[in-house]
Design brief:
It is a single chain. The protein is of the alpha/beta class and 280 residues long. It contains 11 helices and 8 strands. The radius of gyration is 19 Å and the shape is globular. Bound molecules: nicotinamide-adenine-dinucleotide (NAD).
Length: 280
């Protein structure tokens, strides 16, 4: 991969672009407006400066990473990309519209991938004329720190596409696991029933949010408790993930809990809005 396009400049798009640039690969970030595109480049520079201050990277590494990043607000600037990673909001209709447009905008050999947490990758492959070149490349949050990437294989993907996705993940110094195209893939299919149950436990008055978080950190050696993790993921994204899991597996346990939906309807989306289960 010589040039990778990242679409979406939220929590994940920005983190993924930073990982790619630090790996010495050119990356172009496409955001819907030039202002947010520029802000994303600045945010990545701030993130790299923090790593420099902690002596995790050198000034040369910071400069080299920044030299690999450019930003745009138009899809046409992605025409020469070898790989696209779509990371916009977790909404199937939005992603389908984007994949149809991308299919027309980028060169025929380009692989189109999605960072979706749960949505069916096959639905995105079907709106393109290159279903063999569509797969999932699912990073974890925060992308810069988390070592895992799930490579998701819809039935339409060719062996070559999956092999290229794997070699890209390796080039980013991440660990790849393979998974078929089923809601939640490996990690979220196992994680989100637990997170939803933690909210149910709080709603039932069994324990406070704080104590549930302390319990799961101290009792299971998890790095953070379920409420802190939900706020990190984003509560809107969490509802979308649970909706997709519920649509596929039908278990009542997977229906987003009322408290989660209420916070989202109030615009309290977690860390990104400075208010979710906790205040930031
Ligand atoms: N948050 C997580 O922990 C996490 C982890 C792994 C994967 N993901 C997945 O990554 C993707 C992005 O999630 P995020 O957490 O970065 O969300 P976010 O809310 O931080 O960012 C979403 C981005 O999508 C853009 N967007 C929204 N609607 C759009 C549209 N119609 N066209 C183009 N762009 C649009 C927004 O402007 C924003 O830049 C989702 O598919 C999500 O499931 C999220």
């Amino acid at each position: 991969m010589r040039l990778v396009g990242v679409i979406g400049s939220g929590i994940m798009g920005s983190g993924i672009a930073e990982v790619i640039a630090k790996s010495g690969i050119d990356v172009v970030i496409r955001s819907r407006s030039q202002e947010t595109a520029d802000a994303t480049k600045n945010a990545i520079e701030s993130s790299l400066k923090k790593q420099l201050a902690k002596s995790k990277i050198s000034q040369e590494q910071l400069d080299a990473a920044m030299a690999h990043i450019c930003v745009t607000s138009t899809l046409d600037d992605l025409a020469n990309c070898d790989l696209i990673i779509e990371s916009v909001a977790e909404d199937l209709a939005t992603k389908k519209e984007l994949f149809a447009a991308l299919d027309k905008a980028v060169k025929p050999s380009c692989i189109l991938s999605t960072n979706t947490s749960t949505l069916p990758v096959i639905e995105l492959a079907k709106v393109t004329n290159r279903p063999d070149k569509v797969c999932g490349i699912h990073f974890f949050n925060p992308a810069v720190l988390m070592p895992l990437v799930e490579v998701v294989r819809p039935i339409t993907a060719s062996d070559e596409t999956i092999a290229l996705a794997n070699s890209f993940v390796k080039a980013c110094a991440k660990d790849a696991v393979q998974v078929v195209d089923r809601a939640g893939f490996i990690v979220n299919a196992l994680l989100f029933p637990y997170l939803n149950n933690a909210i149910a436990m709080f709603e039932a008055g069994t324990a406070s949010m704080e104590d549930i978080d302390v319990a799961m950190k101290g009792g299971c050696n998890f790095p953070m408790g379920p409420f802190a993790l939900l706020d990190l993921v984003g509560l809107d994204t969490s509802v979308a993930i649970l909706d997709a899991l519920h649509a596929e597996f039908k278990s009542a346990n997977l229906e987003p809990r009322p408290m989660l939906k209420k916070l989202v309807s109030e615009g309290k989306l977690g860390r990104k809005t400075k208010q979710g289960f906790y205040s930031y």
